[in-house]
Structure formats: structure tokens, C-alpha cells
Amino acid sequence: MNKLWLIVKREYLTRVKKRSFIIATILTPLAFALFFVVVGFIFSYESDEAKHIAVIDKGNILGEAGGLPDEASLRFTLENRSLEELRANLKNTEYDGILLIPPINNLYAQTYTVYYYAEGNPSLDIESLIRQKIAYRVREYKIQSLSLEKKQLEALDTRVDLDPEPLDDSQADSSKVASAVGAIIGGAMGIIMYMTVFIYGMMVMRSVMEEKTNRIVEVMISSVRPFQLMLGKIVGVGAVGLTQ
């Protein structure tokens, strides 16, 4: 037991006394906070900058609507010019991109592709908005082309919600809040556990590799059992993780 304690003590103190351990302990939370701040700033910056998109409706999918509704971050303008002309002179126009809507050859097809031309790839937010708007217009176009009743089709789309109710009515609000908080905490703890096992498992592996390289392990195995050596390393590195 004394030998096991010595191994644990050595593994723990060797890492805790390193300058890199102290720096990582201080900077890691700051790095996480800075990361989320930067990501939030990037997304807010992209959403504040409105994109002006030229729309070429070759299949007359937009029909009587005359275009796509604008958003705070998106403006659409129907264009009669050809795709080749707009692509060649895009930099000289007020547009940030070109949206090509091809004809629908098969009304029963479950997939449909539109094409977006721009200097760079659109952000996930812009791409999601375009998909939603086109999907809605394509649905309206198919309903009209197939002579279907819109109200009957809308009646088929039923959203089902599950509302958990406690046996005691006085605990209704607290039960819902506790469920939401529990889900958030559970997800966060799962991510933390995964990162902890991954990072400190790598530390155990590095420790073994270092001692094999320096031939220290040959001396240690002659005085302790391999099980004690590995257990001491795991406990020592685990204590480092709890400290950090």
C-alpha cells in the first residue's frame, strides 16, 4: 500500500508542479469563454449584414407571388437577365449572390435542388432561410399544379406535443422547470465527462510512454507489481484532473 501511495504521490506532484498545469488551469476557462464570445460575435455580425440576392425563376415556381419575401438579413429581387450575364458581372452589381430556381420536371419527386452562386459559401443561417422559403414555394406550386385542396393537405399536418403532468397539480410548474434544467445539466455533464476521460486518459498513456522511453519503468516494475503501477498512475492522474 505504501508503494502504491508513493506512485500516486509522484504522478500527482510531477504534474501539479509543472508551469503548464498552472497556465492551463487558469487559461482553459478563459479560452472557453472567449471562444463562445467570438462565435456569438461572428453570428451576430453575419446576421446584421443583409444579403441582396438576385433570383432567376426559370421554372416559374414563384408564380403569382412575384418573388420571395424579404427578411432582416435577406433581400430578394427577381431578375430577367440570364445566369451567364449575372455571373460575369456580379461584382459590378448590387447583388451578393444569385439564386437559380430550375423547372420542376417531376411533380412527384421528393427532392429538388436550387443553385446559389456567390463569391463564398453562404452562412448556415442564410442557407437555412433560403431552403425554408424555396420549400414553401415549391409546395404551393405542386398543390396548384396537381389541383389539390390546400386546406385538406394542411389538415394532414398535425403537430403532436407531449405535455408531462404531475399527479399533484400544485407541482405542475416546478416539474416542467426541473425537467428542462435536468436535461441541460445532463447534457453538459455528459460533455464534461467525455472530455475528462479523453484528456486524462491521454495523460496516463503519455506517462507510460515517457517512462518506457526513459527506462524508468524497468526499475519500478522490479520493486512493484504492474497492477500497482498502473493503478497508481490512474489514481494520480485522476487526482490531477479533480484538482484542475
Short descriptors:
244 residues, alpha/beta, D-Maltodextrin-Binding Protein, domain 2, 2 domains, 8 helices, 4 strands, elongated
Give an overview of the whole structure.
The mean pLDDT is 79. The protein is of the alpha/beta class and 244 residues long. The protein has a four-stranded mixed beta sheet with strand order 2-1-3-4. The protein has two domains: 49-155, Periplasmic binding protein-like II (D-Maltodextrin-Binding Protein, domain 2, 3-Layer(aba) Sandwich); 176-244. It has helices spanning 2-16, 19-48, 83-88, 124-145, 150-156, 172-214, 216-221, 226-243; strands spanning 51-57, 74-78, 97-101, 115-118. 60% of the residues lie in helices and 9% in strands.
Backbone structural class: alpha/beta
How far is it from the N-terminal to the C-terminal residue, by CA? Answer: 26 Å
> What's the gyration radius in Å?
30 Å
Please tally the helical runs, counting DSSP H or I stretches of 4 or more residues: 8
Give the ordered list of helices and strands: HHEEHEEHHHHH
**Secondary structure: number of strands:** 4
Rough outline: elongated
Strand neighbour order, sheet with most strands: 2-1-3-4
Helix fraction, binned, reads 55-70%
Poorly predicted spans: none
CATH class of the largest domain: Alpha Beta
Biggest sheet statistics:
4 strands, mixed
CATH superfamily of the largest domain: Periplasmic binding protein-like II
Q: What average pLDDT do the residues reach? A: 79
Q: What is the CATH topology of the largest domain?
A: D-Maltodextrin-Binding Protein, domain 2
Which architecture name of the largest domain does CATH use?
3-Layer(aba) Sandwich
